[in-house]
C-alpha cells in the first residue's frame, strides 16, 4: 500500500517505545521527538509501561499524539533488587503488546532498553531506530562479585541487541566515542552511531535581569552527584568571593528535577541532600523542587546564573 504523502514526503506511522514516561532528560527528548514528528504530519504513538498523568510532561496530555500503557501491573523491582531484569520484562511486555495488538509501524523508535529490538525486528517491514542516551552497563553498579555475575548476561545482551537496530543515534560526540569504547565488538564490525543532539527551543525562555541563583536540574538519583553542588555552594559562601562584579557570597542554589515517590532511591537521596545542606550550613540557601512543570523549569533556567552539571564523567 502506498504511503500517504505529506508536503511532498511520505507520511509515516511511527511507534515510540519508552520504559517509563515520567519526568527526566530521556523522557524530555522522547516527548520532543514525538511533538516534532507529529508536527511534520507523521502519525506518532507512544507506548510505555507507566504514565502517571499527574507527574508527566504536559505534551503527553495535549492530544498531539496518543500514549498507551501496557504492563503497569508488572513490578519495577523484587524486594528492591533486580531492577534491570524487571525493566527488561516490562519493556518486553510492552513490545509484545504492540506487535500483537497493533498493525505494523513503518518505524519504531526505541531508547534505554535495547533487548526489545530483536522482537520488533520480527516484523520485516518495520525499521528500528535505537537512541542510546548512554551505555547502561556503565551506569549500572558492578561493585561486587555477585553484581558482576548478575550484570554479565545483561551487559552482553545490551551490546548484541543494540547492534541489531537499523539506525543507532547518540546525543553527543562524547557519547559516540564512549559507545565505541564500550561496545568494542560493534565497533570492530563497523557499527557506529550517528549524533543527533537533543533540540532546545530557546524562544521559550524569558530574559531576566537577576542572575544570582545556581541551578542543578537532574533526577534525584545518587549517580547525579548533586551533593557536589551543595558542598560547592558552602565553599563559595565561606570564600565570600566576588567575580566579574557579581557578589556571589549571597548566591543560592535550586535543586530541581524528576522525583518519583515510588522509587526508594529518589526518596532517600532527597533526604540525604537535605541533611547535607543542614550539615554544610546552607540549608537556608538551597531550595528543592521535585518534578517541576515545564513553565517552572523554563523560569528557573531563565533566571539562573548558571547550570551546574555534577554527574561523574566516565572515561574509558
TrEMBL record:
- List the record's Gene Ontology CC terms alphabetically: endoplasmic reticulum membrane
Reactions listed under catalytic activity: a beta-D-Man-(1->4)-beta-D-GlcNAc-(1->4)-alpha-D-GlcNAc-diphospho-di-trans,poly-cis-dolichol + GDP-alpha-D-mannose = an alpha-D-Man-(1->3)-beta-D-Man-(1->4)-beta-D-GlcNAc-(1->4)-alpha-D-GlcNAc-diphospho-di-trans,poly-cis-dolichol + GDP + H(+); an alpha-D-Man-(1->3)-beta-D-Man-(1->4)-beta-D-GlcNAc-(1->4)-alpha-D-GlcNAc-diphospho-di-trans,poly-cis-dolichol + GDP-alpha-D-mannose = an alpha-D-Man-(1->3)-[alpha-D-Man-(1->6)]-beta-D-Man-(1->4)-beta-D-GlcNAc-(1->4)-alpha-D-GlcNAc-diphospho-di-trans,poly-cis-dolichol + GDP + H(+)
- Enzyme class comes to transferase
Q: Which family does it belong to?
A: Belongs to the glycosyltransferase group 1 family.
Annotated membrane topology is:
Single-pass membrane protein
Q: Which GO MF terms are attached to this record? A: GDP-Man:Man(1)GlcNAc(2)-PP-Dol alpha-1,3-mannosyltransferase activity; GDP-Man:Man(2)GlcNAc(2)-PP-Dol alpha-1,6-mannosyltransferase activity
Q: Where in the cell is it found?
A: Endoplasmic reticulum membrane
Glycosyltransferase subfamily 4-like N-terminal domain location is 23-184
What SUPFAM superfamilies does the entry give?
UDP-Glycosyltransferase/glycogen phosphorylase
Domain of life of the native organism: Eukaryota
**Lineage in the entry?**
Eukaryota, Viridiplantae, Streptophyta, Embryophyta, Tracheophyta
The UniProt entry, under Gene3D superfamilies, shows: Glycogen Phosphorylase B (3.40.50.2000)
- Family matches, as InterPro entries: ALG2 (IPR027054), Glyco_trans_1 (IPR001296), Glyco_trans_4-like_N (IPR028098)
Native organism: Aquilegia coerulea
Query: Membrane-crossing residues?
Result: 85-105
- Keywords annotated in UniProt: Endoplasmic reticulum, Glycosyltransferase, Membrane, Transferase, Transmembrane, Transmembrane helix
What name does UniProt use for this protein?
Alpha-1,3/1,6-mannosyltransferase ALG2
Amino acid at each position: 500500500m502506498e504511503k500517504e504523502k505529506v508536503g511532498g514526503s511520505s507520511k509515516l506511522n511511527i511507534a515510540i517505545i519508552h520504559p517509563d514516561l515520567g519526568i527526566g532528560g530521556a523522557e524530555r527528548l522522547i516527548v520532543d521527538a514525538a511533538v516534532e514528528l507529529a508536527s511534520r504530519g507523521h502519525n506518532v504513538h507512544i507506548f510505555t509501561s507507566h504514565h502517571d498523568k499527574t507527574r508527566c510532561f504536559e505534551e503527553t496530555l495535549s492530544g498531539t499524539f496518543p500514549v498507551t500503557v501496557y504492563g503497569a501491573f508488572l513490578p519495577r523491582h523484587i524486594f528492591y533488587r533486580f531492577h534491570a531484569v524487571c525493566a527488561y520484562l516490562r519493556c518486553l511486555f510492552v513490545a509484545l503488546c504492540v506487535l500483537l495488538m497493533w498493525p505494523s509501524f513503518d518505524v519504531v523508535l526505541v531508547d534505554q532498553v535495547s533487548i526489545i529490538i530483536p522482537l520488533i525486528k520480527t516484523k520485516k517491514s518495520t525499521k528500528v531506530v535505537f537512541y542510546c542516551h548512554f551505555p547502561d552497563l556503565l551506569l549500572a553498579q558492578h561493585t561486587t562479585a555477585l553484581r558482576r555475575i548478575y550484570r554479565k548476561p545483561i551487559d552482553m545482551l545490551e551490546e548484541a541487541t543494540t547492534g541489531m537496530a537499523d539506525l543507532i543515534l547518540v546525543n553527543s560526540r562524547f557519547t559516540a566515542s564512549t559507545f565505541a569504547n564500550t561496545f568494542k565488538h560493534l565497533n570492530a564490525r563497523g557499527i557506529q552511531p550517528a549524533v543527533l543532539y537533543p533540540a532546545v527551543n530557546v524562544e521559550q525562555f524569558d530574559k531576566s535581569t537577576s542572575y544570582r541563583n545556581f541551578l542543578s536540574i537532574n533526577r534525584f538519583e545518587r549517580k547525579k552527584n548533586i551533593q557536589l553542588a551543595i558542598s560547592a555552594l558552602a565553599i563559595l559562601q565561606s570564600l565570600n568571593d566576588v567575580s566579574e562584579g557579581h557578589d556571589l557570597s549571597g548566591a543560592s542554589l535550586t535543586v530541581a528535577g524528576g522525583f518519583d515517590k515510588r522509587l526508594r532511591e529518589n526518596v532517600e537521596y532527597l533526604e540525604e541532600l537535605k541533611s547535607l545542606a543542614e550539615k554544610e550550613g546552607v540549608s537556608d540557601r538551597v531550595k528543592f523542587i521535585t518534578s517541576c512543570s515545564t513553565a517552572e523549569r523554563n523560569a528557573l533556567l531563565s533566571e539562573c546564573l548558571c547550570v551546574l552539571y555534577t554527574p561523574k564523567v566516565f572515561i574509558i
